[in-house]
Design goal:
Layout (H helix, E strand, L loop, with lengths): L1 H5 L8 E3 L2 H13 L10 E3 L6 H7 L13 E4 L17 H11 L1 H7 L5 E6 L8 H5 L3 E8 L3 H17 L7 H14 L13 E3 L3 E3 L5 E5 L4 E5 L14 E5 L3 H10 L3 E2 L3 H7 L1 H17 L10 H10 L1 H7 L1 H11 L13 H6 L2 E2 L6 H9 L6 H7 L1 H9 L3 H16 L2 H9 L3
Parallel strand pairs: 9-10
Antiparallel strand pairs: 1-2, 3-4, 4-5, 5-6, 7-8, 8-9, 11-12
Helix pairs in contact: 7-8, 11-14, 11-19, 16-17, 17-18, 17-19
Length: 427
């Protein structure tokens, strides 16, 4: 994983914490979670405050995510909102954190000048033992604390200010006035700075969970759909009158669900040609095939001359694998911006030539789901499904790792928005 870190393909764009006062505040939060304070003089954090260095020091990658439920967070700075979430059991953790930052921007700006915010994204479940536990998470509440109890002090100071205004002789109470001065020295002027988060309850919408081998939960107005392993506890047994269950191994049924709910962009020449979709898939496919077949050689799957030469030398391999002939057929069929008949495609072929519908609120999650069925497209998996990408990466030999890191860095990290717009029609 060292190559990934050096290329910022893992733990990239994180915030460096090295100032003594910020480390002290971070330790206040750790102690609030009954964890040992860090002795590190410098470490990185993501949007939630997770640090790979602190995790290594504690020997616990789950120190902010025990049981993968009720995710903890540590906020040292408002700028954390611009960071990624690099370690989470739920795909919508980043979305919930963004909502919390947006809903409490003034509070976070004011409090982090002198203090740290920490707490839990609390839901009714303490541990996910079956599908029902995941389905029961309909909303979450941000339970928030501060290192110096600033929020509690602000509430107390506001109460004393009200008492001073409303009680005729309150100004004679020296003890109360002294207490107000002490509180104000910590909180500042609460008449201009809100110091108590008010937007703390958020809906838990469509999501992927790492539990039970990976579970997708799609929520529509009249139906909830679970896609996962049929061996997962509670599968097809939890709320059968309300929840539809799809075996993730049933490619055809999964695809039909995405089509019927309007979540998928069907194979049409209008967007496939414009996006360079087939060229992209060919490059991804031949990268994997070539490096597995000839791992010690250097390959150039983005070069058409190389593609022609390599395919001619490995005709039997290409024909036996079958994907490249299928892509070439699809390219010919779509030249006139036609629409392919789904009945002509096997389920895997449908996924290869489809993407999430741009503009749909679930498009990020749908592209993640599609990537589960198109394993060779490592760029798409990196963009939408990093845990799956990292798991595959660990099993690759060094030459393939080096090539993939170079491709992802050049095509995605250099301009993420451009690649997402061109290939997936997304911002």
């Amino acid at each position: 994983m060292k190559r990934l870190e050096e290329s910022e393909l893992i733990y990239g764009r994180m915030m460096r914490v090295s100032e003594p006062h910020l480390i002290a505040r971070y330790n206040q939060a750790l102690e609030g979670f009954n964890l040992k304070p860090t002795k590190l003089e410098s470490f990185r954090v993501d949007m939630t405050g997770f640090s790979p260095e602190v995790a290594g020091e504690l020997g616990d990658q789950q120190y902010l995510d025990p049981h993968g439920i009720n995710r903890r967070f540590i906020i040292l700075s408002p700028s954390q909102q611009e960071l990624p979430v690099v370690h989470t059991a739920f795909s919508n953790t980043g979305q919930l954190m963004h909502q919390f930052f947006d809903g409490n921007a003034r509070v976070i700006n004011a409090l982090t000048i002198k203090d740290v915010l920490y707490g839990e994204i609390e839901d009714p479940v303490l541990e996910a033992r079956d599908i029902e536990d995941l389905l029961s998470i309909e909303q979450v509440t941000f339970k928030v604390f501060t290192g110096a109890n600033t929020s509690d002090q602000a509430s107390e100071l506001r109460l004393l200010i009200d008492r001073l205004k409303k009680m005729p002789n309150a100004w004679r109470d020296d003890d109360m006035l002294n207490r107000m001065v002490d509180l104000a020295s910590s909180t500042g002027d609460i008449r201009t700075n809100e110091l108590v988060p008010t937007e703390i309850v958020f809906r838990h919408n469509t999501f992927w969970s790492a539990h039970f081998g990976g579970v997708y939960v799609f929520i529509d107005e009249d139906q909830t759909t679970v896609i996962g392993d049929p061996d997962a506890p509670g599968f097809r047994r939890s709320r059968p009158w309300q929840v539809s269950y799809i075996d993730r191994h049933d490619d055809e049924l999964v695809y039909r669900f995405l089509v019927e709910t309007g979540r998928i962009e069907l194979p049409r020449g209008s967007w496939i040609e414009k996006s360079g979709w087939i060229d992209h898939k060919v490059e991804m496919l031949l990268t994997v095939l070539a490096y597995h077949e000839e791992p010690k050689k250097k390959h150039s799957p983005s070069d058409r001359r190389w593609i022609k030469n390599w395919v001619s030398k490995n005709t039997q391999l290409v024909e036996d694998e079958g994907t490249l002939p299928f892509l070439m057929w699809a390219e010919r069929e779509l030249e006139s911006w036609a629409e392919l008949e789904l009945d002509e495609l096997d389920p895997r072929g449908r996924f290869i030539l489809s993407r999430a519908k741009p503009g749909h609120p679930d498009n990020w999650l749908v592209n993640r789901l599609i990537s589960d069925y198109v394993k060779f497209d490592f760029v798409t998996r990196y963009v939408f499904n990093k845990p799956s990408f990292y798991a595959s990466y660990e099993g690759w030999h060094d030459e393939l790792k080096e090539h993939v890191v170079g491709v992802v860095s050049d095509t995605y990290l250099n301009n993420k928005a451009r690649l997402r717009k061109r290939l997936y029609g997304m911002k």
